[in-house]
Amino acid sequence: MNDLTDQFRLAIAAAGLTPPTEIIDDGAIHRFSTSGKLTHKNGWYMLHTDGIAAGAFGDWREGFTQNWCSKTDTSMTEAERFANRERVKAMQRQREDDLAQRQQLAAVDALKRWAAATPCTQHDYPTRKGVQPHGTRIEGDKLLIPMRDTTGTVHSLQTITPDGIKMFMSGGRVKGCYFGIGKPKGALIVCEGFATGASIHECTGHAVAVAFNAGNLEAVAVALRSKYPALKIIIAADDDHQTPGNPGMTKATAAVQATGSALAVPVFKATTS
Protein backbone atom coordinates (compact mmCIF):
# COMPACT_ATOMS: atom_id res chain seq x y z
CA MET A 1 0.00 0.00 0.00
CA ASN A 2 1.28 3.52 -0.75
CA ASP A 3 0.06 7.09 -0.84
CA LEU A 4 -0.68 7.00 -4.58
CA THR A 5 -2.88 3.91 -4.42
CA ASP A 6 -4.60 5.38 -1.37
CA GLN A 7 -5.32 8.58 -3.32
CA PHE A 8 -6.62 6.52 -6.24
CA ARG A 9 -8.87 4.48 -3.94
CA LEU A 10 -10.27 7.68 -2.41
CA ALA A 11 -11.05 9.00 -5.90
CA ILE A 12 -13.01 5.83 -6.69
CA ALA A 13 -14.96 6.16 -3.44
CA ALA A 14 -15.60 9.87 -4.09
CA ALA A 15 -17.22 8.91 -7.40
CA GLY A 16 -19.78 6.82 -5.50
CA LEU A 17 -18.25 3.41 -6.20
CA THR A 18 -17.08 0.85 -3.64
CA PRO A 19 -13.31 0.59 -4.29
CA PRO A 20 -11.54 -2.77 -4.43
CA THR A 21 -9.65 -4.00 -1.38
CA GLU A 22 -6.42 -4.35 -3.37
CA ILE A 23 -5.31 -1.98 -6.10
CA ILE A 24 -2.65 -3.23 -8.53
CA ASP A 25 -0.63 -0.48 -10.22
CA ASP A 26 0.62 -2.41 -13.28
CA GLY A 27 -1.28 -0.45 -15.94
CA ALA A 28 -3.53 -3.41 -16.81
CA ILE A 29 -7.33 -3.40 -16.59
CA HIS A 30 -8.62 -4.96 -13.38
CA ARG A 31 -12.26 -5.63 -12.52
CA PHE A 32 -14.04 -5.24 -9.21
CA SER A 33 -17.48 -4.96 -7.67
CA THR A 34 -18.69 -1.36 -7.48
CA SER A 35 -21.28 -2.33 -4.87
CA GLY A 36 -19.24 -4.66 -2.68
CA LYS A 37 -21.17 -7.72 -3.90
CA LEU A 38 -18.62 -10.26 -5.11
CA THR A 39 -20.84 -11.49 -7.95
CA HIS A 40 -21.07 -8.02 -9.53
CA LYS A 41 -17.81 -7.45 -11.43
CA ASN A 42 -19.02 -4.45 -13.41
CA GLY A 43 -16.37 -2.07 -12.08
CA TRP A 44 -12.91 -1.65 -13.62
CA TYR A 45 -9.74 0.34 -13.04
CA MET A 46 -6.24 0.77 -14.43
CA LEU A 47 -3.38 2.57 -12.69
CA HIS A 48 0.17 3.55 -13.64
CA THR A 49 2.46 4.81 -10.86
CA ASP A 50 5.65 5.21 -12.87
CA GLY A 51 6.44 8.83 -13.72
CA ILE A 52 3.39 10.94 -12.92
CA ALA A 53 0.84 8.53 -11.48
CA ALA A 54 -2.31 8.38 -13.59
CA GLY A 55 -5.22 6.03 -13.99
CA ALA A 56 -8.86 5.63 -14.81
CA PHE A 57 -11.84 3.76 -13.41
CA GLY A 58 -15.50 3.25 -14.10
CA ASP A 59 -18.54 1.03 -14.32
CA TRP A 60 -19.14 -0.97 -17.52
CA ARG A 61 -22.84 -1.38 -16.77
CA GLU A 62 -23.54 2.30 -16.19
CA GLY A 63 -21.22 3.51 -18.96
CA PHE A 64 -19.34 5.60 -16.39
CA THR A 65 -15.65 6.52 -16.83
CA GLN A 66 -13.41 8.89 -14.86
CA ASN A 67 -9.72 9.69 -15.35
CA TRP A 68 -7.39 10.38 -12.41
CA CYS A 69 -3.95 11.96 -12.09
CA SER A 70 -1.80 12.56 -9.02
CA LYS A 71 -0.93 16.08 -10.21
CA THR A 72 -3.16 18.87 -11.44
CA ASP A 73 -2.74 20.12 -14.98
CA THR A 74 -1.53 23.52 -13.76
CA SER A 75 1.19 22.00 -11.56
CA MET A 76 2.80 20.09 -14.45
CA THR A 77 5.49 21.26 -16.81
CA GLU A 78 4.63 21.39 -20.50
CA ALA A 79 6.55 18.15 -21.06
CA GLU A 80 4.67 16.47 -18.21
CA ARG A 81 1.31 17.64 -19.57
CA PHE A 82 2.15 16.22 -23.00
CA ALA A 83 3.27 12.89 -21.52
CA ASN A 84 0.13 12.68 -19.39
CA ARG A 85 -2.17 13.43 -22.35
CA GLU A 86 -0.47 10.69 -24.36
CA ARG A 87 -0.83 8.24 -21.48
CA VAL A 88 -4.55 9.08 -21.12
CA LYS A 89 -5.03 8.46 -24.86
CA ALA A 90 -3.22 5.12 -24.60
CA MET A 91 -5.35 4.06 -21.62
CA GLN A 92 -8.51 4.99 -23.51
CA ARG A 93 -7.46 2.88 -26.52
CA GLN A 94 -6.67 0.00 -24.19
CA ARG A 95 -10.09 0.27 -22.52
CA GLU A 96 -11.90 0.47 -25.85
CA ASP A 97 -10.07 -2.57 -27.24
CA ASP A 98 -10.73 -4.58 -24.08
CA LEU A 99 -14.39 -3.57 -24.02
CA ALA A 100 -14.92 -4.42 -27.70
CA GLN A 101 -13.37 -7.86 -27.23
CA ARG A 102 -15.42 -8.60 -24.11
CA GLN A 103 -18.65 -7.47 -25.77
CA GLN A 104 -17.99 -9.51 -28.91
CA LEU A 105 -17.40 -12.69 -26.92
CA ALA A 106 -20.47 -12.05 -24.77
CA ALA A 107 -22.65 -11.44 -27.85
CA VAL A 108 -21.66 -14.79 -29.37
CA ASP A 109 -22.43 -16.58 -26.10
CA ALA A 110 -25.71 -14.68 -25.67
CA LEU A 111 -26.96 -15.69 -29.10
CA LYS A 112 -26.14 -19.35 -28.46
CA ARG A 113 -27.90 -19.32 -25.09
CA TRP A 114 -30.93 -17.50 -26.50
CA ALA A 115 -31.25 -19.98 -29.38
CA ALA A 116 -31.06 -22.95 -26.99
CA ALA A 117 -33.55 -21.54 -24.47
CA THR A 118 -37.22 -22.52 -24.28
CA PRO A 119 -40.05 -20.04 -25.00
CA CYS A 120 -41.54 -18.94 -21.68
CA THR A 121 -45.14 -19.90 -21.00
CA GLN A 122 -44.90 -19.73 -17.21
CA HIS A 123 -42.31 -18.46 -14.75
CA ASP A 124 -42.62 -17.45 -11.12
CA TYR A 125 -41.23 -13.94 -11.64
CA PRO A 126 -43.73 -12.60 -14.21
CA THR A 127 -46.49 -14.57 -12.46
CA ARG A 128 -45.70 -12.89 -9.15
CA LYS A 129 -45.60 -9.50 -10.87
CA GLY A 130 -48.93 -10.18 -12.56
CA VAL A 131 -47.66 -9.80 -16.14
CA GLN A 132 -47.29 -11.95 -19.25
CA PRO A 133 -43.90 -13.35 -20.43
CA HIS A 134 -43.93 -11.24 -23.66
CA GLY A 135 -41.50 -13.32 -25.72
CA THR A 136 -38.97 -14.06 -22.99
CA ARG A 137 -37.43 -17.51 -22.69
CA ILE A 138 -36.44 -20.00 -20.00
CA GLU A 139 -32.97 -21.36 -19.24
CA GLY A 140 -33.11 -23.79 -16.33
CA ASP A 141 -35.08 -21.95 -13.65
CA LYS A 142 -34.13 -18.50 -14.96
CA LEU A 143 -36.08 -16.08 -17.11
CA LEU A 144 -33.99 -14.90 -20.09
CA ILE A 145 -34.49 -11.42 -21.53
CA PRO A 146 -32.54 -10.51 -24.69
CA MET A 147 -30.76 -7.15 -24.89
CA ARG A 148 -30.96 -5.90 -28.48
CA ASP A 149 -29.87 -2.81 -30.38
CA THR A 150 -32.14 -0.97 -32.82
CA THR A 151 -31.25 -3.43 -35.62
CA GLY A 152 -32.54 -6.34 -33.53
CA THR A 153 -29.09 -7.81 -32.88
CA VAL A 154 -28.79 -9.63 -29.54
CA HIS A 155 -25.76 -8.35 -27.60
CA SER A 156 -26.36 -9.75 -24.13
CA LEU A 157 -28.93 -11.27 -21.79
CA GLN A 158 -30.50 -10.40 -18.48
CA THR A 159 -31.43 -13.34 -16.27
CA ILE A 160 -34.05 -13.20 -13.53
CA THR A 161 -34.44 -15.95 -10.96
CA PRO A 162 -37.87 -17.02 -9.66
CA ASP A 163 -37.34 -14.85 -6.56
CA GLY A 164 -36.36 -11.81 -8.63
CA ILE A 165 -32.55 -11.73 -8.56
CA LYS A 166 -31.39 -10.00 -11.75
CA MET A 167 -28.01 -10.47 -13.43
CA PHE A 168 -26.38 -9.31 -16.66
CA MET A 169 -23.87 -11.36 -18.62
CA SER A 170 -20.27 -10.61 -17.71
CA GLY A 171 -18.77 -8.39 -20.39
CA GLY A 172 -22.05 -7.97 -22.26
CA ARG A 173 -23.00 -4.66 -23.80
CA VAL A 174 -25.70 -2.73 -21.98
CA LYS A 175 -25.48 0.82 -23.33
CA GLY A 176 -28.14 1.48 -25.94
CA CYS A 177 -29.59 -2.05 -25.71
CA TYR A 178 -33.18 -2.74 -24.75
CA PHE A 179 -35.99 -5.30 -24.81
CA GLY A 180 -38.98 -4.37 -26.92
CA ILE A 181 -42.59 -5.21 -26.09
CA GLY A 182 -45.17 -4.50 -28.78
CA LYS A 183 -44.85 -2.68 -32.10
CA PRO A 184 -44.26 1.09 -32.05
CA LYS A 185 -47.29 3.00 -33.27
CA GLY A 186 -48.19 6.48 -32.15
CA ALA A 187 -46.10 6.40 -28.98
CA LEU A 188 -43.19 4.46 -27.56
CA ILE A 189 -42.52 4.29 -23.82
CA VAL A 190 -39.02 3.77 -22.41
CA CYS A 191 -38.72 2.44 -18.86
CA GLU A 192 -36.21 0.65 -16.64
CA GLY A 193 -37.36 -2.87 -15.73
CA PHE A 194 -39.12 -5.77 -17.46
CA ALA A 195 -42.05 -6.02 -15.04
CA THR A 196 -42.65 -2.27 -15.26
CA GLY A 197 -42.50 -2.38 -19.04
CA ALA A 198 -44.85 -5.35 -19.27
CA SER A 199 -47.34 -3.64 -16.96
CA ILE A 200 -47.23 -0.41 -18.96
CA HIS A 201 -47.79 -2.25 -22.24
CA GLU A 202 -50.66 -4.32 -20.86
CA CYS A 203 -52.33 -1.24 -19.37
CA THR A 204 -51.85 1.18 -22.29
CA GLY A 205 -51.33 -0.95 -25.37
CA HIS A 206 -48.32 1.20 -26.28
CA ALA A 207 -45.01 -0.31 -27.34
CA VAL A 208 -42.37 -0.33 -24.62
CA ALA A 209 -38.57 -0.40 -24.63
CA VAL A 210 -37.12 -1.85 -21.43
CA ALA A 211 -33.75 -0.15 -20.84
CA PHE A 212 -32.88 -2.37 -17.82
CA ASN A 213 -31.51 0.41 -15.59
CA ALA A 214 -31.70 4.16 -15.07
CA GLY A 215 -28.21 4.75 -16.44
CA ASN A 216 -29.24 3.30 -19.81
CA LEU A 217 -32.42 5.36 -20.31
CA GLU A 218 -30.71 8.16 -22.20
CA ALA A 219 -28.70 5.89 -24.52
CA VAL A 220 -31.80 3.87 -25.40
CA ALA A 221 -33.93 6.98 -25.90
CA VAL A 222 -31.29 8.53 -28.20
CA ALA A 223 -31.04 5.34 -30.26
CA LEU A 224 -34.82 5.08 -30.59
CA ARG A 225 -35.19 8.78 -31.45
CA SER A 226 -32.74 8.20 -34.31
CA LYS A 227 -34.70 5.17 -35.52
CA TYR A 228 -38.15 6.74 -35.05
CA PRO A 229 -37.69 10.52 -35.55
CA ALA A 230 -41.43 11.23 -35.85
CA LEU A 231 -42.62 8.96 -33.05
CA LYS A 232 -43.71 10.32 -29.67
CA ILE A 233 -41.33 8.95 -27.05
CA ILE A 234 -42.25 8.94 -23.38
CA ILE A 235 -39.73 8.27 -20.61
CA ALA A 236 -41.43 6.47 -17.72
CA ALA A 237 -39.32 7.34 -14.68
CA ASP A 238 -38.79 5.30 -11.55
CA ASP A 239 -39.20 7.86 -8.78
CA ASP A 240 -36.51 6.72 -6.35
CA HIS A 241 -37.49 9.42 -3.87
CA GLN A 242 -36.11 7.44 -0.93
CA THR A 243 -32.69 7.03 -2.58
CA PRO A 244 -30.13 9.86 -2.28
CA GLY A 245 -29.98 11.79 -5.55
CA ASN A 246 -33.12 10.07 -6.85
CA PRO A 247 -31.29 8.35 -9.77
CA GLY A 248 -34.53 7.23 -11.41
CA MET A 249 -35.81 10.79 -11.83
CA THR A 250 -32.37 12.27 -12.50
CA LYS A 251 -31.53 9.87 -15.34
CA ALA A 252 -35.05 10.01 -16.78
CA THR A 253 -34.92 13.81 -16.88
CA ALA A 254 -31.55 13.66 -18.67
CA ALA A 255 -33.05 11.29 -21.26
CA VAL A 256 -35.97 13.68 -21.81
CA GLN A 257 -33.64 16.63 -22.30
CA ALA A 258 -31.42 14.70 -24.73
CA THR A 259 -34.27 13.57 -26.97
CA GLY A 260 -37.13 16.04 -26.54
CA SER A 261 -39.29 13.27 -25.12
CA ALA A 262 -42.16 13.50 -22.66
CA LEU A 263 -41.73 12.51 -19.01
CA ALA A 264 -44.13 10.30 -17.07
CA VAL A 265 -43.70 9.90 -13.31
CA PRO A 266 -45.47 7.63 -10.83
CA VAL A 267 -47.90 9.18 -8.36
CA PHE A 268 -47.62 7.93 -4.79
CA LYS A 269 -50.64 7.95 -2.54
CA ALA A 270 -50.29 10.13 0.52
CA THR A 271 -49.93 8.19 3.75
CA THR A 272 -51.73 9.10 6.92
CA SER A 273 -50.33 8.63 10.38
Explain how this protein is built.
The chain has 273 residues and is an alpha+beta fold. The protein has two domains: 3-107, no CATH class; 180-273, Rossmann fold (3-Layer(aba) Sandwich), CATH 3.40.50. The protein has six helices and 14 strands. The strands form three sheets. A five-stranded antiparallel beta sheet has the order 5-6-7-8-9, with helices on one face. Helix 5 runs parallel beside helix 6. The protein starts with a helix and ends in a 9-residue tail after the last strand.
What is the domain tally?
2
- Mass-distribution shape: globular
Helix-strand pattern: HEEEEHEHEEEEEEHEHEHE
The pLDDT mean sits at 91
Low-confidence stretches: none
Give a quick account of the main beta sheet: strands, pairing sense, barrel closure: 5 strands, antiparallel
Strand content: 15-25%
Q: Give the strand tally.
A: 14
Helix content: 25-40%
Topology of helices and strands:
Layout: H1 3-14, E1 30-32, E2 43-48, E3 54-59, E4 64-69, H2 78-116, E5 118-119, H3 124-129, E6 137-139, E7 142-148, E8 154-160, E9 166-168, E10 179-181, E11 187-191, H4 194-204, E12 207-210, H5 217-227, E13 232-236, H6 247-259, E14 262-264
Parallel strand pairs: 11-12, 11-13, 13-14
Antiparallel strand pairs: 1-2, 2-3, 3-4, 5-6, 6-7, 7-8, 8-9, 10-12
Helix pairs in contact: 5-6
